[in-house]
Design goal:
About 25% of the residues lie in helices and about 20% in strands. The strands form nine sheets. An eight-stranded antiparallel beta sheet has the order 1-14-13-12-6-7-8-9, with no helix packed on it. Strands 28-27-31-25-26-30-29 form a seven-stranded antiparallel beta sheet. The longest helix is centred in the middle third of the chain and has 34 residues. The N terminus is likely disordered.
Length: about 1050
């Protein structure tokens, strides 16, 4: 190498390369040497120490320094400062001498010094210095003195200085080689003339590097500059006075070798292994447990090594090197290797943040919403850093062994370049090969590809569950046509229609792996523990994470909690539930089952028809008709047509959803493909079976249990506009089951009034909390609840913060005794004229307080505003607008969507027409014998909610419904507003300022419902509210109004919140 380059020579370089394992120990000693340098003084000329040079007197110089090569003293610098202090005219006049006889005795015996050289450099390192070299000409006589600068390509031979000449020719300068000596005289200005030179301040310590090689054996005209072995170093001299200066051996080379070895080891072994293990090790059952910790430890170790050795090498960069925006040969910041190094260092710092964030996003709820972004950044930042590091290692090698010449210069470069290319090829082939195998032999063969936007599976079609048929995806999905055949129209939604034929049998690989793994587990333990859903939920509160698959097999996933690729939050969300559809299918396997939500026509000024005064027909099974004027008439029985729902219209199982709602469902499912390897891993975690499922055959539905938690997606959440209270606003939330076709045997299709569901959430990342809520509409597949925020509550603050599609929410039920049940007629309504009796009460008074209004809303929705339930038309209607349908007396119409203004979107089952129709021309679901009176007690109008439902019932079926609101603390914020504003929030009658419900108000409500005209056993007072409220109403009914105990139904206070 050229003068000043701090790299090794041929045999020394090879020896040092083999000593790399011990380089850390060497570095420690060198750092100590750098930290504690020795003091020296420049010497005056001692004629006894001056070698004899024919024709040249070295004693003419005023100063000399021969401490460069401390062990040999082979290099000596002689100098005199001419024109000192004259700025531009100040000259360093010197002679550089190499005494080769102190290196090897052969030079005392006349050995040739041809191509030998000695050099000093102004600077602290080989990368940014200006050099003065004395080169012995290859002819064997004479020398040349050259001015060189560092190569822009790193540790390469210096190149000729392209700047102005700094040498001053004042007569002939002397040069000599012979008698073991190389001598070169030079005269140089001390002040730089351009950016390619360095200035010398003779009054301050000047930093020099030096090197020599007496016998370089060059292979071409310039290669002699490449060879200097360890015969190089760093020296500090004060040129003006020769006062004491510090000197120390150059530690740059060992430190940089250490830096290169550490970086190469880290970025070609540690980091690639960590990434490979995280990418593929998690899918290998034998290595799955703990794969994440292996990845974390390896990444942390690599990051620590990277940061440490980058800092270490930065300490070797001279202070005088220009790192600023200037340009020139001494600006290292523009060179590829340091630039790339700082980019990689920045990526490592970013990864040091993204790594923990990625880990925390698996277990911290507040970060889980950003998990996709964090994981994307973490994954691709790491990949980019690794690719850049592969390039950077090559650039680093190139600074020591310049490619393509460096590998073949005899210093061991061929070994290191070979190792480099072998490692790069190894990791490239391994990553590409494993990825290709994974996709084409595992994922594509078993899972297919899932569109995250539509949920559609490409490359695989399978049934929703083993032995069950996939839902049809016909173009008429969700659209009614002509319907014929069948029995009772009410039964059409009670008895589920048969699913269409299976479109294509799936590849049996998935189920074969499951069955074989389960069979193997069963053989190893024939007496599994038997679980019930209640016991699984109890185990959850005790810290166990149990899941169920195929409705039968129970697995303990606690061992997977810290190594599951999807994170802890996913496992905690599915704990205590059936994971069959998640684990054995993808999010889009039932994409064809999506039923589009009916399009609601634009609002127009529609006039409702005037209902006929003689509304004949009656309650299904009833024998009398109540007219609006209070009189009763005998029913004229309208023949019920034989109707059924179209084939494939599984309306109870697949709720109509908007496109956005369906996307929320798919988002909450967290699309994933589980391979056979993952299934085998799950099978090893089996701990028991569900009680009573041992004889469950493949393809048979698992039995329904209200104690089974099933997972839902939040598809709508908004503050109810009518609930103006800032402190405790009311939220309307809508939930849809993740897999609508995942049904259970004997599963109820609807919620009955008086029933509630239980919602369970994991709050504060550690504890499970559950609360009961009353659905105001819907079925187990999709329903709506009202949630009143309790700021200090355990559940509602977390529940109302949820965003649609962000997480899966566990819900079970229904619980409670129904107020009404079409399959259970009331005992007092069975008569000879009506042997089947009636399921609806004739007189129904509902008294609610606070959030108990939700129970009343559910009852109103069930009795008067149902969807997908046949309604009898008792008055003809001719369409006025293009989007309306014609109805005739005796038709049956199914409502698909309510507008809550007396109009609804529905289908005439006789004609098949779909469009808007007026509800007043139909009988409500409960018939014409039921009168409902609601008495709602709340603080102010600001606490109201559900006004759209109440108004819709009043407008559509006013003769059968009355609503009274008691505002105990006045109107509230609407006090100064117009009466219409209060009526909009509180439809019906408003009683304000009474303080509470008293016997007078309650008696008026009973009178409005014509309580005394009801048949015994066919009237009921339903009370729902806080415990004290319920007790007060009960006493009032019993003691003041003569209502019998058996005529009062108290809903549990904790079931309506």
């Amino acid at each position: 190498m050229s003068c000043g380059r701090d790299t090794g020579s041929s045999h020394h370089g090879r020896r040092y390369g083999r000593a790399l394992p011990f380089v850390l120990l060497v570095c420690t000693a060198l750092v100590l040497a750098v930290a504690f340098p020795r003091k020296v003084e420049a010497d005056t000329i001692d004629p006894a120490q001056v070698p004899s040079v024919p024709g040249f007197d070295l004693t003419k110089f005023s100063q000399m320094e021969n401490g460069f090569d401390r062990n040999r003293g082979a290099v000596t610098l002689y100098w005199t400062i001419e024109n000192a202090g004259s700025n531009r005219e100040e000259i360093l006049h010197g002679a550089l001498v190499l005494d080769a006889t102190k290196i090897d005795q052969k030079y005392s015996q006349g050995a040739s010094l041809a191509n030998g050289w000695v050099a000093i450099g102004l600077g602290r390192c080989m990368l940014a210095s200006e050099f003065i070299m004395v080169h012995a000409l290859p002819s064997g006589t004479g020398v040349e003195v050259k001015n060189l600068i560092s190569s822009a390509d790193g540790y390469k031979a210096p190149v000729d200085n392209p700047g102005q000449s700094m040498f001053v020719s004042n007569g002939t300068l002397f040069g000599y080689q012979g008698n073991g000596l190389i001598v070169g005289e030079f005269r140089r200005y001390t002040q730089a003339l351009d950016i390619y030179h360095k200035s010398i301040n003779i009054n301050e310590v000047t930093q020099f590097i030096w090197a020599y090689n007496a016998n370089p054996k060059p292979t071409n005209a310039e290669s002699y500059k490449v060879w200097h072995s360890f015969d190089r170093g760093r020296y500090l001299i004060q040129l003006a006075t020769g006062s004491p200066a510090d000197t120390a051996p150059v530690a740059n080379l060992p430190l940089r070798y250490t830096h290169g070895a550490a970086m190469g080891f880290t970025w070609t072994l540690i980091f690639p292994f960590a990434i490979f293990w995280a990418r593929f090790g998690k899918s290998m059952p034998q290595f799955n447990i703990g794969w994440m910790w292996v990845h974390i430890v390896m990444q942390a170790l690599g990051a620590a090594i990277t940061a440490s050795f980058i800092i270490l090498v930065i300490t070797t960069i001279p202070d005088s090197v220009n790192w600023g925006p200037a340009t020139g040969p001494f600006v290292l910041s523009t060179r590829a290797h340091p630039v790339m190094g700082f980019i990689i260092l920045g990526l490592v710092v970013v990864q040091l943040w993204l790594g923990p964030l990625n880990r925390l996003s698996l277990s911290v709820e507040s970060l889980f919403a950003y998990r996709t972004t964090i994981r994307f950044l973490h994954r691709y930042t790491g990949r980019i850093a690794l690719i850049l590091a592969f390039v950077q290692v090559g650039l680093g090698l190139n600074t020591f062994f310049c490619f393509p010449d460096g590998p073949f210069d005899g210093r061991g470069g061929i070994i290191w370049w070979s190792i480099y290319f072998i490692l790069i090829s190894f990791w490239t082939i391994l990553f590409i090969g494993t990825e290709a195998f994974w996709w084409f032999k595992v994922r594509k063969a078993e899972g297919g590809f899932v569109s995250r936007k539509t949920g559609q599976v490409y490359g695989r079609i399978e049934s929703p569950a083993p032995g069950r048929d996939a839902p049809s995806a016909g173009p008429a999905r969700g659209k009614f046509g002509l319907i014929s055949g069948g029995t009772n129209p009410e039964d059409a939604l009670v008895v589920k229609s048969a699913p269409p034929p299976q479109q294509q049998q799936q590849d049996s690989t998935f189920l074969t792996a499951t069955k074989s793994a389960t069979a193997q587990a069963s053989r190893s333990n024939s007496s599994w523990r038997q679980f019930t859903w209640g016991e699984i939920d109890e185990a959850l509160y005790e810290g166990q994470l149990l899941v169920v698959a195929k409705g039968r097999y129970v697995y303990d996933i606690n061992r997977w909690i810290y190594s599951h690729p999807g994170g802890q939050i996913v496992l905690n969300q599915v704990a205590g539930t059936d994971i069959t559809n998640d684990y054995f299918h993808e999010a889009g396997f039932d994409a064809g089952a999506f039923v589009p939500k009916p399009t609601v026509p634009a609002a127009t000024n529609r006039r409702l028809p005037t209902p006929s005064l003689n509304r004949q027909g009656g309650n299904f099974g009833s024998s009398t008709t109540l007219n609006p004027d209070g009189s009763t008439t005998s029913n004229v029985v309208v023949p019920k047509p034989s109707v059924s729902l179209p084939s494939g219209q599984d309306l109870a199982g697949v709720p109509p959803l908007s496109d956005q709602e369906w996307k929320y469902v798919l988002k909450a499912r967290r699309t994933n493909v589980h391979s056979r390897l993952a299934i085998e891993k799950l099978s090893s975690l089996m701990v028991g079976e569900m009680r009573g499922t041992q004889d469950l055959q493949e393809g048979v539905l698992a039995p329904f249990s209200p104690y089974e938690y099933r997972r839902y997606s939040l598809i709508e959440s908004c503050i109810v506009p009518n609930a103006r209270s800032v402190a405790t606003p009311v939220y309307k939330q809508k939930f849809c089951i993740l897999f609508p076709h995942d049904m259970r045997a004997n599963e109820p299709h609807f919620f009955f009034p008086g029933q509630c569901i239980e919602i369970q959430l994991r709050v504060r990342n550690k504890e499970y909390v559950s609360r009961y809520y009353t659905p105001i509409a819907g079925s187990l597949a999709c329903f709506t609840i009202m949630v009143k925020l309790a700021p200090q509550g355990a559940l509602t603050p977390s529940l109302v913060r949820q965003k649609p599609g962000d997480r899966q929410i566990k819900i079970r039920g229904p619980f409670g005794t129904p107020i009404v049940d079409p399959e259970r007629p009331l005992p007092g309504t069975i008569t000879p004229q009506s042997p089947s009796g009636s399921w609806a009460f004739e007189k129904l008074v509902v008294v609610v307080g606070g959030s108990g209004l939700a129970a009343a809303l559910h009852l109103v929705e069930w009795l008067f505003m149902p969807t997908y339930t046949p309604l009898l038309v008792i008055q003809s209607y001719e369409p006025v607008n293009y989007d309306e349908i014609a109805l005739s007396v005796g038709d049956w119409v199914i409502t698909k969507e309510h507008l809550y203004d007396g109009w609804a979107v529905g289908v005439n089952l006789r004609t098949g027409q779909e469009g808007l129709f007026p509800l007043p021309v139909t009988y409500p679901r409960c018939g014409n014998a039921t009168t409902l009176a609601i008495l709602n007690c709340m603080h102010t109008a600001d606490d109201a909610f559900g006004s759209d439902v109440l108004r819709g019932a009043l407008v559509a079926y006013g003769p059968y419904v009355t609503v009274t609101h008691v505002l105990t603390r006045g109107i509230g914020s609407l006090e100064s507003g117009p009466p219409a504003a209060v009526e909009k929030v509180c439809p019906g009658t408003v009683v304000s300022g009474r303080g509470r419900i008293d016997a007078e108000i309650l008696g008026n409500t009973l009178w409005a419902a014509k309580w005394n005209e009801g048949s015994p056993g066919a009237r009921k007072v339903v009370v729902c509210g806080p415990q004290g409220f319920e007790g007060a109403i009960y006493e009032m009914c019993m003691e003041n109004l003569g209502v019998q105990h058996e005529e009062i139904l108290m809903l549990p206070p904790d079931s309506y919140i």
